[in-house]
Structures are given as C-alpha cells and as structure tokens.
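Internal QA ticket QA-208
Title: Verify multi-chain structure generation after dependency bump
Assignee: T.L.

Test input:
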Amino acid sequence: MNKVNLDAAFATFTERWSPHTVAALNDYEVKLAKVCGGFVWHTHEQTDELFLVLHGELTIRLRDREVLLRAGELFIVPSGVEHQPFAAQEAHILLLEPTGTLNTGDRPAG
Amino acid sequence: MNKVNLDAAFATFTERWSPHTVAALNDYEVKLAKVCGGFVWHTHEQTDELFLVLHGELTIRLRDREVLLRAGELFIVPSGVEHQPFAAQEAHILLLEPTGTLNTGDRPAG
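Actual output:
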C-alpha cells in the first residue's frame, strides 16, 4: 500500500457524514469523515467504534453524558452503547471499525 | 471509558520504543510510542500493523523501499512484510494492532 496523508485525503471530498475508507488493517477499515450537526442516535451491538478528532470538535452524546472531543483526542464507544455524534461546526474525524460496519449501526436504513 | 488526549498521554512517559496502550477496540489496542533511531528488523506474520505519525517524522524501511511518514500521515505494514521503523529525531507515533502483538514481531527476544 501507499502511505495516506490525512489532510490530502480530506481534500478529496466535501460530503458530510459519509465516511471514506482510506486504509485497511486486517478486517478493519480506517475511515475519514467530515461531520457537522447531529447524526442519528444508533448502536453497534457487535463492535466498539473508535473516534479520533483531527480538526475541530466533536461531541459524542451518550444517554447519560456527553464526551467533548477536541483535535488530538480519541474516544471508543463500546459495543451496545447508544450514541449520537454531534458537531456544532464542521469537524474532521478518523474512524476505525470492522469492515462492513454501517455508520447507522443496527438502526434500519430509511 | 474516558476520552484520551494524545498530547497528555505522551507527556506521561519518556521511554522510547516502549508502546503504551491507551485504549482498546474489541481485540485491538491503540498504543502510543516515542521513537528515535532504528528499531530491529521484524515481521508480523499474523497481522497488519498501523503506524500514524503525530509528531516528527518516521521512516518505515522495507526491504525494497522506504516510506517516509510526516505528522498526519499513516501507513499500514501488511502481515508478513519485514520492516524496520527508523526516526532520525524523536517522533511520536500511534500504533494499532491486535492485543498481544509484540513490537518485535516474530523475532525471538534477547
């Protein structure tokens, strides 16, 4: 594989809440996403999910608390824990999760 | 879990080539390491290994080429590929690999 420059990879897309896979590690994928506003509440029953903020701020809303992540901070949402990512302004984040994980978790699409 | 501030986590140790686990994702671990100089040539036969440079520069020497990583760049060494991390000056890196992976790979200790 080739190396991935994160800034250069972010420059290739503008869509929000649309994770772009930039690398694979065994059966996991490294994804980059631009996010702004609130995403749907959802749960991944089968997997933990890693969020690393690279630019801006991201709040991970949990049912009992909120976790504010600034650039250079990471958080892992444990499997089975309902959460809602929220960003007041556009943030750039790195996600890591098993290949095939849907960003809406176990919530039916549509 | 609590969030991890990467700069704060790096400030807790000074040893080089001694990965510190800061978070777990399923059966994977997120590790931080300060590196300087050259590490041993080694191979992980069973797993890929992710390197993300957070500060400084890291060269991943492969037998047929070198990959220079600057801050904000990541590279995944495929399983079975011999490699030697090298940093001319201290660099701060994030590693991701399955729990139990040794940093010397399949090379016997000692």
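Spot checks passed. The longest strand of chain B covers residues 83-98.
Status: verified.
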